[in-house]
Amino acid sequence: MMVMIYSAIGSGASAQDKVSAQANSPILTPGFASLPTDADATFAPQANTAELASMVAAEPQVQALTQDMRCLASAIYFEARSEALDGQLAVGRVIVARTKSGRFPTSYCGVVQQPSQFAFVRHNRLPDVDTNSITWKKAVVVAQLAHEGKLKSAAEGALYFHSVRSKNRWDKRIRVAQIDNHVFYR
After folding, report:
1. pTM score of the predicted model
2. What is the mean pLDDT of residues 75-103?
């Protein structure tokens, strides 16, 4: 899956207000009762692969997923579902970082649906997902971990990424990491 990422200047600010009609109803997905809360101790400096795998493998309870979390999980699913969990977490953390940067929309849906940012988004709509698949359920757990910020990725602080197959080369950006098939930049 190729990612197209351009400058946010003059593009897509209204994307955060647009939500696909298909996703207005809650979707039952794995919950996260077993995951740490914000009241828990300090954050790990970087994701421990075994800890990440353990959290994803845990049997979560079922709860409704908000539209914004569905957008984050969808981005992880479509961008990195064939990647290792570390790569999926890094993609999620980039989207979280964008919402906090002041240079991109402030919602996950706004970031994901911003024009020309993610190749899987067509006409400002996310593709349908088989919400019963194991791959989707893993993406949902990784999205929750990325959102909570309890585990940091090896690409922490990155705001951009592209596939290693992409011809994009961002000489003016600081390369943070390469994880699986993605290269991450600040």
Report:
1. 0.69
2. 95
